[in-house]
């Protein structure tokens, strides 16, 4: 809009004077006129106030004195006038210089002034000092930038924004760290991708946004999925963001990974439960212990009286009655022993032992208990630390576990007896303190247990078996025995998924290795027979001779055992067995450890039968079934002599 110069019409002289006075009085705007070349021709109060010059000081000077040196060098003042001339207006913001050299941020408008003929007669220049506004804007921008950097830099929280429909619009370092996605992978995609499949199907993401939109905020915890598919437990807050008009423009989402907190809460709960369970058993133990103790004394009296009774004359019928009573008293005594063991009132004979060895020499009994219907395997870890146990009670307990496993697999299956070392953290297994433990487990592929059965299984007299089939004291004894050794019993079971019973015994510190203390003097023999009965009786023979006995019910199993126990000295095997024959086993065993002595037992006249197989029979000794202890002793002597001879 061209401005009419004050000395031309249409203003009356009176009006023109009023306008001049008005302009010169304005102090918020510097309003002054330039000649067509840019020389200052008028000056008002505002100009004096902003720029510090009086009218006398500047009139006649070129207006470029208000520009910075730099702008002057770039020819900006001239360009401004050129643009005002050609475009009809120049408008800009920029730094200007006061008389005292200080700067201010100016908003500048330059309008060309033309006369009636259109000839340029000068410029009207209006300048305003907007330094404060500029500083405020800058401060705002800076604080926004700082805030942005802060959000970007936060790594403990995933902070990002969503569009009203849930599309991700930005992404910070925390989001990258927690969810593993890079900025470019997620921006523009829908945030429901972080939810689990199931939550997505149930419409959780949408509901969260709806809640935030209607109530201003949504807060919840739940599982979320990382890029690699793993889950974490997330604490999520979604805030709705509205503009000044109250329209929803998006959401701010803050997610925190609180998996650890959840885990420790869960662990606390577990520990509390374990404590409760052990306190409950403690209480039951006190009660049963007291009853069992008294009961045991009563049984003693009964037993003694019966043996006194036996001494006098009786009819056959009476003697049978006495025998039945004696048998019953014995059975009662066994039960009270189990009860006492649960109550930990059983005298406990602590010995330092390598459980592998104990299990090894008990193997035949376990096999017999398991029967032929299930496969019984042993998986014994090497180099186990020793533990302190009462061997007889340990054996009873292990037998209980194997019998339970067998009862749980009526249609056949597999039972594995295994040993392992485990470093347990506090709260991981029952009430066990943090330490190293030797774990002896019996695992079966049987019917498993319902959760209620798991929690009650240890209780004395808790049984799910038919009347007469179980007294419900087996696990009570195991529990008492393990507790008395300073350990615990852990039950892992699910219906249809089998059961694992794990006995934890504190590992003795020392060299960490099993030192073979009590057993080191005895020789070890591996017995192989597919007949459990024979395994047991032969085992008895060898034990009588001071051997430590390991046993296997097939050639294949025997080889497995041999591989695990390379220091075995003697193999005693049946010849005729399903699968690998004794002879084949003997050859393979010899190949495995050449120093091994081998005795083969057969019901046939052995050597002629074997000769047909073309075996180098000189390596092996033979025994014909049935053999007596004396036959066995002779054979062993013969081998010793041969061994001694070849050693010289
Ligand atoms: N391996 C297992 N698989 C499935 N259930 C088991 C197993 N071991 C134990 N149970 C359950 O725990 C209960 C208690 O076992 P526990 O050994 O204490 O008593 P029992 O076997 O019933 O009787 P017994 O006194 O003759 O051992 C069992 O009746 C059974 O329900
Ligand atoms: Mg049992």
The overall average pLDDT, rounded, is 86
Strand content: 15-25%
Give the terminus-to-terminus CA distance: 130 Å
Task: Give me the number of helical elements.
Answer: 21
Structural class: alpha/beta
Radius of gyration: 49 Å
In terms of quaternary structure, what is this?
single chain
**How many E-type strands?**
20
Attached small molecules: adenosine-5'-triphosphate, magnesium ion
Morphology: elongated
Largest sheet, spatial ordering of strands: 10-12-13-15-14
Report a brief summary of the structure.
It is built from 21 helices and 20 strands.
Report on this model:
By secondary structure, the chain is an alpha/beta fold. The chain has 21 helices and 20 strands. The longest helix is centred in the middle third of the chain and has 53 residues. About 2% of the residues have low confidence. The structure holds adenosine-5'-triphosphate and magnesium ion. The site of magnesium ion has 5 residues, from helix 14.
Describe the secondary-structure layout.
Layout: H1 13-25, E1 30-34, H2 45-51, H3 55-58, H4 69-73, H5 76-87, E2 90-97, E3 103-114, E4 120-129, H6 131-153, E5 157-162, H7 173-179, H8 183-186, H9 197-201, H10 204-215, E6 217-225, E7 231-242, E8 248-257, H11 259-311, H12 316-342, E9 351-353, H13 355-370, E10 374-380, E11 387-389, H14 391-408, E12 413-424, E13 435-444, H15 451-456, H16 474-484, E14 488-493, E15 499-506, E16 524-528, H17 532-544, E17 548-552, H18 555-564, E18 570-574, H19 582-592, E19 597-602, H20 606-612, E20 621-624, H21 629-647
Parallel strand pairs: 10-12, 16-17, 16-18, 18-19, 19-20
Antiparallel strand pairs: 1-4, 2-3, 3-4, 5-8, 6-7, 7-8, 9-11, 12-13, 13-15, 14-15
Helix pairs in contact: 11-12, 12-16, 13-14, 13-17, 14-16, 18-19
Residues 400, 403-404, 470, 474 line the site of magnesium ion.
């Amino acid at each position: 809009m061209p401005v009419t110069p004050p000395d031309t019409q249409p203003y009356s002289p009176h009006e023109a004077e009023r306008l001049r006075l008005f302009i010169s009085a304005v102090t918020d705007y510097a309003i002054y006129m330039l000649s067509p070349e840019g020389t200052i021709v008028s000056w008002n109060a505002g100009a004096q106030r902003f720029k510090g010059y009086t009218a006398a000081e500047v009139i006649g000077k070129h207006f470029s004195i208000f520009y910075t040196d730099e702008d002057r060098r770039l020819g900006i003042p001239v360009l401004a006038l050129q643009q005002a001339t050609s475009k009809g207006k120049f408008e800009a913001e920029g730094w200007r210089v006061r008389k005292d050299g200080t700067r201010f941020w100016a908003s500048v408008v330059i309008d060309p002034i033309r006369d009636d003929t259109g000839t340029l007669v000068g410029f009207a220049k209006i300048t305003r000092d907007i330094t404060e506004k500029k500083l405020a804007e800058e401060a705002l921008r800076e604080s926004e930038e700082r805030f942005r950097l802060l959000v970007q830099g936060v790594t403990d929280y995933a902070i990002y924004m969503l569009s009203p429909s849930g599309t991700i619009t930005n992404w910070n370092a925390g989001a990258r760290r927690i969810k593993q996605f890079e900025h470019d992978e997620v921006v523009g995609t829908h945030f429901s991708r972080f939810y689990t499949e199931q939550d997505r199907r149930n419409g959780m993401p949408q509901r969260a946004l709806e809640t935030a939109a209607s109530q201003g905020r949504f807060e919840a915890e739940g599982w979320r999925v990382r890029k690699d598919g793993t889950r974490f437990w997330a604490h999520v807050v979604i805030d709705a963001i509205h503009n000044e008009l109250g329209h929803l423009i998006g959401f701010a989402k803050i997610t925190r990974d609180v998996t650890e907190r959840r885990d420790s809460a869960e662990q606390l709960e577990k520990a509390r439960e374990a404590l409760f369970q052990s306190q409950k058993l403690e209480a039951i133990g006190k009660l049963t212990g007291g009853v069992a103790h008294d009961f045991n004394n009563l049984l003693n009296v009964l037993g003694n009286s019966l043996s006194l009774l036996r001494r006098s004359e009786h009819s056959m019928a009476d003697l049978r009655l006495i025998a039945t009573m004696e048998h019953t008293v014995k059975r009662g005594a066994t039960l009270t022993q189990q009860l006492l063991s649960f109550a930990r009132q059983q005298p406990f004979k602590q010995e330092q032992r390598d459980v592998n060895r104990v299990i090894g020499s008990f193997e035949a009994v376990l096999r017999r208990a398991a029967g032929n219907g299930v496969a019984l395997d042993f998986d014994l870890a090497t180099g186990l630390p020793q533990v302190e146990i009462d061997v007889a009670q340990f054996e009873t307990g292990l037998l209980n576990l194997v019998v339970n496993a067998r009862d749980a697999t009526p249609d056949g299956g597999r039972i594995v007896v295994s040993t392992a070392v485990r470093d347990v953290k506090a709260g991981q297994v029952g009430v066990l303190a943090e330490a190293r433990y030797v774990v002896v487990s019996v695992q079966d592929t049987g019917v498993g247990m319902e959760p209620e059965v798991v929690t009650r299984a240890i209780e004395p007299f808790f049984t799910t078996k038919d009347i007469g089939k179980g007294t419900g004291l087996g696990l009570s004894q195991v529990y008492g025995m393990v507790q008395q050794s300073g350990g615990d019993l852990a039950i892992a079971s699910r219906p249809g998924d089998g059961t694992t019973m794990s006995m934890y015994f504190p590992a003795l510190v020392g060299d960490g290795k099993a030192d073979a203390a009590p057993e080191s003097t005895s020789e070890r023999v591996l017995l192989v027979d597919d007949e459990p009965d024979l395994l047991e009786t032969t085992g008895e023979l060898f034990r009588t001779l001071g051997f430590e006995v390991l046993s296997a019910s097939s050639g294949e199993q025997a080889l497995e055992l041999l591989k695990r126990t390379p220091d075995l000295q003697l193999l005693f095997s049946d010849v005729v067995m399903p699968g690998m024959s004794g002879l084949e086993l003997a050859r393979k065993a010899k190949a495995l450890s050449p120093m091994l002595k081998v005795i083969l037992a057969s019901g046939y006249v052995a050597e002629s039968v074997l000769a047909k197989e073309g075996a180098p029979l000189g390596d092996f000794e033979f025994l014909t079934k049935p053999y007596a202890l004396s036959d066995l002793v002779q054979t062993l002597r013969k081998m010793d002599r041969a061994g001694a001879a070849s050693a010289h």
